[in-house]
Fold these 4 entries.
Entry 1:
Amino acid sequence: MDFPLAAVAVALLGLGLVMIGSASAAIADRQTGESFYYLLRQFTYIALGASLAFGLLRIPLSVWEKSGPALLVCGLVLLTMLFVPGLGRTVNGSTRWLMVGPFNFQVSEFVKLAVVIYMSGYLVRRGRAVRTTVAGFLIPMSLVTLIAVLLLAEPDFGAAAVLMATALGMMFLGGVRLWLFALLVGLAGAALSVLAVSSPYRLERLTTFLNPWEDPFNSGFQLTQALIAFGRGDWLGVGLGDSVQKLFYLPEAHTDFLLAVLAEELGLVGTLGVIALFAVLLWRVFRIGRRAAEAGQQFGSYLAFGVGIWIALQVVVNVGVNMGVLPTKGLTLPLMSYGGSSMLVSCMAIALVLRVGLETQLAGMSGGGRR
């Protein structure tokens, strides 16, 4: 097994847990009377995610390759269920969660993984059609577009954009014709741009990040507080647990803006450390994908590259939002931000990549591999 990848993932989980304990103590005490409420729940999510990951490591990739279409259909059904009265839960105007007992399940997180698994299998089964025909490219992208439309209806613009970009990236790796790829990228970009500017809410977010100080107590409040946190952090930070911005100034301090609290408490050095950990994580993931391709493990290669593209996009968007270089989007920082759905699916994704590395190594030892 790729122990460096596992070690970096564990390091991110541990650091995220510490920062959630720091960022959420005040708001947890006000909301529930228990300062460690969110910390204990996140610890439970990590424990469940780790247990699930250990279980997935025992499942051969051939099982996932065959189950890709079923997982995609399951994702479509779950997205549809969000709009059934009494099933979907609406928070801050967005219907993104299904009630599963005492937990809220965010369907978009599962759908991202389902699309990556489906696309990996499709590129193996229909690779020649993808490279030589228009239909081979349009069929899977039509399904992904349908899912993106359902995500936009929640609305969840950030998840839809990450999903489309991940699918397009995988199609590019699959060898789709360059002109067709460029055409669809242009159409997808134009469609997302029109959707962004056609909604007053999204348009406000797009324009606010350009100058949040123009309205620092209303539309620009969240971003200005995040920038203040980065400014206070300086080089080495104000010290773990000593953040001021988490004391009801910065909304979503333990979820979408966890990095801003980390920057305030651990400074530029701590922030660069987190980015370095993610860089190593992605390097190992892409390395596993490349080695799988060299060993003839096509499905494993596409799966690893798909997970890597997805995580890389989400990290870039979250870091960019926290630093004010991208419009505010509700995307978590993988393996670190608070959230059960994100944590479970992130652990599953890392486990699948570890399984790819394991099967590639076993194939090399036995002199096998599909070529």
Note: The longest strand covers residues 94-100.
Entry 2:
Amino acid sequence: MKLIKSLLIVGLLGGAAATTVHAMGKGDDCPMGDKGMSAHMWQMDPAKRQAMMEQHLQMLHDRLKIQPAQETAWKAYIDAMKSAQAPAMPMAKPDATLPEQMDGRVKMMQQHLDMMQKHVAATKALYQKLSPEQQKQFDQEARHMRDGMQHHMPRHRPASAPLPKN
């Protein structure tokens, strides 16, 4: 059960990260920084969502101050991020048995894990090409994004933690 819970968390974080970690921004200059927007992002028109992602990528490019010699690595990173989009959630069959439902969830989590592994490899390749100052900026942007994601994620308590008393 812990494996399934862990894979689910990795899958959810991987799906979100693969499509947004490169879209890190802050405040009013960030088209996806609005708290209300993040809740509705996945319900919006795909073309509009893609335009927002492109805007974010440009913002990150500018904040990292990507140099001409780094453009090839940047483009490879972007290509990997775009090809590593989260898989669509499969529709559950209404008459699926519990084991079939669980198999479907594990399959989806494995797809998310595979996607996240591609994302990590692409991020590491870009990171190696960045200067120490750019790496620091990238780390700050990632921290900001992680903090934002954690703010919107449900809180989990360890399985060993006692239940709260009502």
Note: Residues 10-39 have pLDDT under 50 and may be disordered.
Entry 3:
Amino acid sequence: MRPVQIVIDAQDTQRLAGFWAGALADRGYRLPTPPDGAPDWPSWLRAQGVPEEEWGAGFALDNDDETQPRVFLQRVPEAKTAKNRVHLDLQAGGGQRVPLAEQEQRVAAAVERLTALGATHVESRTELGTHWAVLRDPEGNEFCA
């Protein structure tokens, strides 16, 4: 059992799982492989008798480090309409212990990587010696890098 599970609402769980697996790859997260040697998820789900309309109802990312939180994407019918009340902070800059110029370089590199994965850069900020960027994932969920 993981210490914490982070749940992200999504309309397309598989697409968003691919984004977050890439965004969190440097922390050991990855897309899960189908069990029982199945060649792909549709084959495995079909063999389990799961109706196609239920495929993608939920999608968890794998991480071998059991001290890391589980990341679970759950399908919801509605699109995102308001600002997140909770968000992920990837802490790409390293915080105040890192010189500001280096924080800016780290954050810029993270923004470049994340936008290549499908994120949208909203803004970059520096306050109290810490530099970060605000982004949105492909479904509009805000997060920081």
Note: The radius of gyration is 17 Å.
Entry 4:
Amino acid sequence: MDASPVPTPTSTPSPAPVPVHHHFHFGEYYVHHIQDPGKQPLFLLLLGFIGSFLFIRFSVRMIRRGVRWWPGNVTPGGLHIHHFVFGIFFLLVSGVGTFVTVGTHPWIDIFGLIFGMGCGLVLDEFALLLHLEDVYWSEQGRKSVDAVIVGILFTGLLLVGYLPLGLKPSDRVHWGLIAALSINALFTVVTLFKGKFWSGMIGIMVPGVSWVAAVRLARPNSPWARWRYADRPRKYARARRREARWHRRGDRGRMWVFDLIAGKPTPVGARPTRAHLLAERVADRLSGALTAPGDAHRSRSYLPSDEQRIRSLTRLNRLAARHAAVATTAPPNAEAAARRREAAARRSAIAAGRSRGTKGNRRGPC
């Protein structure tokens, strides 16, 4: 019996792979990069930090402009309560609450948000705590903005990398990594001594930035320039030229960004703002209410310390403006020199025993 040929199966061509288009989904990204690694409390801390800083800066700028529809300062009984007081309260509540709940969910997320809000309120008035003086709208008040930006940058870098060089607490630490961290820390310290603050702060988390900044010239006003460039005039001159060429442009751009975010400082001799004038009127009413009818001359001693400071600053601004106006309308140098010569001639004539009215005649004997 002849065997019939077995039909060979024909190979069908495999279908072409369908291209898969990967779309960005924020929910998947958040779960994979924030929630699963356990970074959600740190993320909420950063949100509270940025949100509280932006809100309080908006509030103080509305108060500075004297907008009627904004609530204004918190002044119970005439005492101006600064917002760093509320920030300290938030920090205490979040810290104690974290210890009480042993860092369990969802309390750790709630207290992380509250802690970030406290950080924003406290660091926004960092300059006041540093100087122990109300320098919020002065040039010294820019230290608060620097502190806030450093805090936000440091928290953001921790959120992205969690630790320097991208390490995690569960990773095994080798001697090579320890050496790399030590070298990076050394270059970061040198960068900070050379006056390159932002390069040093970024170099803490991003190795290589501080290394490049450490081998370049220092800024002329930095401690490194005072220590190393004192006997090297050529290198110091190069540092000054580079400062004039690059760093001052960067500083102007940074100040423009700071003015946009935090408001422009009040220059010396400027006209008092509406907030200052309103504070003066409130102080007058308080002093009139607290002063006895026969002690009107002692009304100033009953003013709160903040109102006294506002009045003194207003008076100094007016004096500075008056002196500036006198300086702009001063007589020319020739006329001033002629007046000085006439005054010197009168003084010498009086010293020699002559009268002020005569120009060369001596007085006769009596």
Note: The mean pLDDT is 75.
